[in-house]
Amino acid sequence: MPRVSEEHRERRRQQILDAAQRCFVRKGFHKTSLQEIFRESGLSAGAVYGYFRSKDDLIRAIAARSEPQVSAILEEILDTGELPPLDEIVARFAAGVIERMGSGGGILIAPQGWALATYNPAVHEAMARIFSNTRSWWTRVAERLQDDGRLAPDADPHAVGAVLTSIITGFIVQRLLLGDVDAETLREGMRTLLSSDLGSSEAVGVGNELDRALALPVRSLDAG
Question: Per residue in 123-157, is it b (16+ CB within 10 Å) or e — as a string?
Fold first, then answer.
């Protein structure tokens, strides 16, 4: 029946993606050959080519598959009614990222995809979409905080979203390369930045404080 056929094809497609992802985790995108993916999947070349014509196709599909995993972490936090403090939001997201790294999820090879996207137009489109969606989500968080009076009224939610996206991206890289940061590290760092006495005695929310905490003086840039 058509329904069974579609389900079978989807299972086979996921089987191929799982095999490719395991290979990419072990050896990286560049050093993994399609022949290795064929062997890992237990399928013939013809069977794999029936779903994916190239490694680029596989990489894009793995990226697309990992996006709902990330979205699930974000939406779970956003759907909690009243948002927790920003440091708690960042820490919860980081904890979800770590959990998916441990299960061999697509996040584990995300930095490889980011690097590839800088010069591969086909992969760039997929990665840019994921980054754009993630940044939009963090912008929504900033807008919610602003509506709740916890972000300065004149703050730019898009700018805050861009900064938070950079923090999370940097966390993933540090976790993979150094291994000495966790959700509590981010929680404590964010809490320190947001609660520091940076020249204002009024608790107007995180907007101005975050801006001042992360901004570099012009002279420090010139000195470099």
Answer: beebbeebeeebbebbbebbbbbbeeebbbeebeb
* Alpha helices per DSSP H over 103-156: 110-117, 121-147
Q: Record the pTM.
A: 0.78
Q: 57-76, pLDDT tens digit by residue?
A: 999 999 888 888 788 888 88
**Per the structure block, which two tokens stand in for 217?**
């003086």
Length of the chain measured in residues: 224
At 185-196, the pLDDT tens digits run: 999 999 998 886
* Start-to-end C-alpha separation, the chain: 67
Q: Which amino acid is at 137?
A: W
- Provide the total of helices (H) and of strands (E) in the chain, helices listed first: 11, 0
User: What are the chain's domains?
Assistant: 1-53 (1.10.10.60), 55-211 (1.10.357.10)
**In terms of Cα–Cα distance, which of 223, 196, 191 is closest to 212?**
196
